[in-house]
Amino acid sequence: xxxxxxxxxxxxxxxxxxxxxxxxxxxxxxxxxxxxxxxxxxxxxxxxxxxxxxxxxxxxxxxxxxxxxxxxxxxxxxxxxxxxxxxxxxxxxxxxxxxxxxxxxxxxxxxxxxxxxxxxxxxxxxxxxxxxxxxxxxxxxxxxxxxxxxxxxxxxxxxxxxxxxxxxxxxxxxxxxxxxxxxxxxxxxxxxxxxxxxxxxxxxxxxxxxxxxxxxxxxxxxxxxxxxxxxxxxxxxxxxxxxxxxxxxxxxxxxxxxxxxxxxxxxxxxxxxxxxxxxxxxxxxxxxxxxxxxxxxxxxxxxxxxxxxxxxxxxxxxxxxxxxxxxxxxxxxxxxxxxxxxxxxxxxxxxxxxxxxxxxxxxxxxxxxxxxxxxxxxxxxxxxxxxxxxxxxxxxxxxxxxxxxxxxxxxxxxxxxxxxxxxxxxxxxxxxxxxxxxxxxxxxxxxxxxxxx
Length: 453
Prior knowledge:
Blueprint: H1 23-52, E1 92-98, E2 100-123, E3 128-133, E4 140-141, E5 146-150, H2 153-188, H3 194-227, E6 229-231, E7 236-241, E8 248-249, E9 254-271, H4 272-275, E10 283-288, E11 295-303, E12 313-321, E13 332-349, E14 354-356, E15 359-367, E16 380-387, E17 389-394, E18 397-401, E19 409-413, E20 423-429, H5 448-451
């Protein structure tokens, strides 16, 4: 007898189903599956968005060439058409100037001060009251030009009186000479005494001396009157006026300071080990801090033969033409001279110098492959940083000391933004005129450093 709790089994179906699972236990499994499906969908959407914005490509996703073939940029097909080097950062364009090596003699640079070739404190030669002032500070004057005049009324009166007295005495001399001639003829006839004749001679000689004395007085007063007008002893410019109209000026008082700046002199101190190479007429270069960009050609005028004992240096006077009067007295001057045997010096453009803190740097292009046919334009390479010391400047060029060789492509534009190892491409090669081979490493500006004092 069958139990009412069991239904008859269907044909082909197993009769043993195992224990049944309650509905409440199936629900959590469905939720987990739904969460997994949603996670996969979100991840797929993220990948699609990243690819769309260019953050990932086929290679960064780890896809093979079969799944993301490389783009053919117009090359011929074939097995090699789909292969190429990995794409890296784009090369930055830079402008360069090749380094230049020159050979030059040792060059010294010394400090000095420009001074007028002539300077005078014009003084009064006579006493008098200043009545006229004809010039002021900065005025240009010519030799012989009147600078000031003193009052001359009293002198003119004295001169007029002296001339009148001279004329009177001259008239008496003429009468005394006539009397002498008459008495001389009477003496021959014994018509007068010897004593009368001698008195006529004495009167005539006295008037002769009187005329001579008055002539001298007239000349003296004329000279004093002339010197009452103070004149410029040479052509130049007024640097100072020491008097005013109405002042009493005594003989020897300073009136005007006058300078001649058509040429200037620069006094420098040269160390004893260089003095044998310097002779009068030796050419030097002169630059002034107040006149940047202007170079003057000077010559050695004189060498003081006595050294300064404390520093063992010799004073040397350098004469510099100053036709345009641009150089003023007291300006700081730098005198440089080429001495010794020639030696190599390396030049780079001034624009190549980059200062970062205490470092002085240049950046050069380390080329990859053979140079281009366009003189360097288009050359590709990597940035190399070089630390250098700097020497004297010469125009657009700068002397440097360091691991730099002639022909190195030194960056002059874009060097503020580059870094070592960065790929770059030469977009332009600047053409700079190479200076004459007269550069070299500098030596101490202060000659005392040469003597160890």
